[in-house]
Amino acid sequence: MKKRLAIGGLILVTIIWGGGFVASDMALESMRPFQIMAVRFLLGTILMGLISIRSLKGITKSEVKAGGLMGLALFAGFAFQIVGLQYTTPSKNAFLTALNVVIVPFISFLILRKKIGARGIAGAVMSIAGVALLSLDRNFSLGIGDGLTLICAVGFAFQIFLTSEFVKKYRATVLNFIQMITAFFLSIISLMAFGETQFHVTGKGILSVLYLGVISTTVCYLLQTTSQKYVDETKAAIILSLESVFGTLFSIMILGEIVTPRMLAGSLIILGAVVISNLSEAGQVE
């Protein structure tokens, strides 16, 4: 029963995150990237702090270190994603971000020496083909937005991997609080470094950031961390890949984005790569 609830929780996370691509695109109409991230993670830090306030009394150095590493990976993923979103469409941003799922098994191999199956390698090759079809121009150059989004996928891959490893050893609420406050401070440093200190926020921007901070960040990362106690990282990765599907659907429904046959083909190849590579890992015997 706990495993079924955990799977249901991860599916809910993907639906909400899918809406996050649209919310981020709306927020960018009146706010700069690191302004959005700073407000988003400030809300996440406050709410997660309230949730975990009792647990923080017995916090350990190991939990701080683990949460800090998760926060660093989370910040890197969101930073490259939202900056990249300025130069590409929400649907392409969503499907390129989904490649983090293909990357997770390779991180497990490099750090834990977990074997990568033949289908895992095939999934990686498929993902490269999907990215080429989805993102490369006629002269085979990669747009800056798509390139930044590919880097963001690496950050999110590390976040999924680290979450799966640390949630088995430490308390989920504490990990999430440290993760949020780390990402918040890194966002403030970046905001100041890039001179984004002047705020001119519209009503739509405020609502978008509230969605990102309260629902897409606090609720989702608490759900993700708790759910991954009962679902291994490869199965969790397969479920989380649905984020790209919902991101595209919401982008079409709300923003009226037009999806071309080439974009659709590339997206389907990437989604297939995500499922194939991770199903192979889930089926392996340790």
From TrEMBL:
Subcellular location: Cell membrane
Highest taxon listed in the record's lineage: Bacteria
Cellular component GO terms, alphabetical: plasma membrane
Keywords of the record: Cell membrane, Membrane, Transmembrane, Transmembrane helix
Record flagged with keyword Lipid metabolism: no
Transmembrane segments: 34-56, 68-88, 94-112, 119-136, 142-162, 174-194, 206-224, 236-256, 262-280
Main location class: membrane
The family this protein is said to belong to: Belongs to the EamA transporter family.
PANTHER family (alphabetical): EAMA DOMAIN-CONTAINING PROTEIN (PTHR42920:SF5), OS03G0707200 PROTEIN-RELATED (PTHR42920)
Protein name: Drug/metabolite transporter (DMT)-like permease
